[in-house]
Amino acid sequence: MESLRVLAHISAYTILEGIRLKIADRLMKAPLGEVMGRRIGYLKNIIMDKVEDLEPPLAH
């Protein structure tokens, strides 16, 4: 059973990594003024915190 839980967490974090990479790719393609007009805390909240909120339903 423990190995299934570990596998679920590895899978979840792999998915979260993919989501973060897609967000970063979109930011790189966005107009500079649009990105620079956002507060760093807002971007961090989306990239780290909001994506991390997806972990419990994915891993459990």
Automatic annotation (TrEMBL):
This is ABC-type multidrug transport system, ATPase and permease component. It comes from human gut metagenome. The lineage of its organism: unclassified sequences, metagenomes, organismal metagenomes.
